[in-house]
Write a structure and sequence with these properties.
The protein is α/β, with parallel strands linked by helices and about 450 residues long. The protein has 3 domains: about 130 residues, no CATH class; about 110 residues, Rossmann fold; about 180 residues, no CATH class. Helices cover about 50% and strands about 10% of the residues. The protein has 16 helices and 10 strands. The strands form 4 sheets. A 4-stranded parallel beta sheet has the order 4-3-5-6. Helix 2 crosses helix 3. The chain is globular. The two termini are about 35 Å apart.
Length: about 450
């Protein structure tokens, strides 16, 4: 894993993206050379055109989820995503040629560039799929501890894709803790920890002891590993890095206090505000026709109000009133506030569609322009639910340290939550966002939100 602007990214993802960036960049030059083999292409003149093509196609790939942390699609699913990305990229490039004719490269060159890049992307994905999980390319991890804390790894990282980038070479029981992990994975420490680590070719040691008091912590041996160039990492940080969330079940106040993150400041707030205004204005300019059509259809459906206004908890627990397109019957909450359920009978015919496509959220762009919300952040929750969750979920109030958002890390990482367990899961992603916020993470979430809409993830 590489930490870029405080956000963890798989090294494999960076390699994959770098190779595909190079493919798209070279594609325009290849297209020009194949289309006009007898002429010498003007490399300087083609440079801005190659850059535009690369940016558009890479954004298209990101937008359909092809650089997800844990992409679990089979080969057919990946092919479908690549197809959607190339169709979207082609459409946007065609629009760019119309609006910016100086970037036009010719239909023949463009077609050759598309075919060339499509073939190489498919080959690259097939090749990458074969080598990404090869043990020789993975970090070798030794876990100190074999009890309840160490078992957390197996509980949360079950799938092969969850363990991409590393392999656990074994667990080392320490002290009197009861062994909870698979005993066949436990290693007998007959010599020093550093010798064991060197014999196994370990590059990282994860501290996962259930009990650290009373001399249970092998400080001297871990220091030997650290000074020998082996990375030492605690379980909470390891799980944050691998899962993209902060696990509540092993979270200690001391980790929150001494870990990096949770940075605030006037410069950071100003940058985020500028980002919010620009992103909202750009999206509104494209979404306005859709919003008008949605408003007409909502009114025609049952002659009720078009908009739905609701009080939510904003930054620093300030109450704000947010706007949405109404997707439920007018009397939907006559029995009080409740989560939307799957196939909820309160949802109208038009409401079902606008919820699945997230069109119902578009009026919240007005809240963003007003400053009540941010474009990216934890989803705003109702005061009734916040009061309830704050009593039952540790640290729940901390999600309100930042402005709520139209979209967020939890929304692209986890489906719609309609239970207490789902709320805990989504909060763990929210806490990761609050801790590791950066403009880079915001932009990444913004691009990946398109994939959530296209694939209809989590809508109810």
């Amino acid at each position: 894993m590489i930490r870029l602007f405080k956000h963890y990214i798989h090294r494999a993802q960076i390699i994959l993206a770098s190779v595909e960036t190079a493919i798209f960049f070279v594609a325009i030059y290849v297209g020009m050379q194949v289309r006009f083999p007898s002429s010498t292409p003007n490399l300087e003149l083609l440079l801005p055109k190659a850059v535009l093509f690369t940016l558009v196609m890479m954004v298209s790939l990101v937008s359909v989820g092809l650089y997800q942390r844990h992409l679990r699609d089979e080969a057919l699913g990946v092919l479908l995503r690549i197809g959607v990305a190339f169709v979207g990229g082609t459409a946007f490039m065609s629009l760019s040629f119309y609006l910016l004719p100086e970037f036009f490269v010719g239909r023949g060159v463009f077609l050759i560039a598309l075919v060339f890049s499509l073939v190489l992307v498919l080959v690259n994905r097939a090749f990458f799929g074969r080598i990404a999980d090869h043990h020789a390319l993975q970090r070798r991890v030794l876990v100190i501890g074999a009890g309840e804390m160490a078992l957390t790894i197996d509980r949360h990282l079950k799938r092969k894709t969850d363990r991409r980038g590393f392999v656990i070479v074994g667990y080392v029981p320490f002290g009197q803790e009861e062994v909870k992990v698979d005993k066949t994975q436990c290693l007998r420490k007959e010599e020093s920890l550093i010798n064991l680590a060197l014999q196994l070719g370990v590059s990282e040691v994860v501290l996962a002891l259930t009990e650290r008091r009373g001399g249970a912590l092998p400080v001297e041996e871990m220091l030997d590993c650290k000074l020998s160039g082996i990375e030492i990492i605690d379980l909470q940080t390891f799980m944050e890095r691998q899962t993209g969330k902060v696990l509540l079940e092993i979270l200690k106040p001391s980790w929150l206090i001494f870990s990096d993150g949770f940075a605030q400041g006037a410069g950071r707030a100003f940058g985020k505000r500028v980002f919010d205004i620009l992103a909202s204005l750009i999206l509104l300019s494209f979404a306005l026709p859709i919003m008008v059509i949605a408003a007409v259809l909502i009114y025609l459906d049952d002659r009720g109000p078009v908009f739905y206004s609701q009080v939510r908890v904003g930054q620093n627990w300030k109450l704000v009133r947010i706007l949405k397109f109404r997707s439920m019957r007018v009397d939907a909450e006559k029995n009080g506030a409740q989560f939307a359920q799957k196939n909820d009978s309160r949802v109208t015919r038009v409401g079902s569609f606008i919820r699945k496509t997230r069109i119902d959220e578009l009026p919240q762009l007005i809240n963003v322009l007003k400053g009540d919300m941010s474009f990216v952040g934890p989803r705003p929750e109702r005061p009734e639910f916040v009061e309830e969750f704050s009593k039952t979920i540790p640290y729940y109030a901390e999600r309100h340290r930042v402005k709520p958002g139209v979209t967020g890390w939890a929304q692209i990482s986890y489906p719609y939550g309609a239970s207490h367990k789902d709320t805990i899961e989504k909060f763990q992603y929210d806490l990761y966002y609050v801790k590791n916020y950066s403009m880079f993470l915001d932009f990444s979430i913004l691009l990946q939100t398109a994939e959530v809409v296209l694939w209809g993830k989590g809508a109810r």
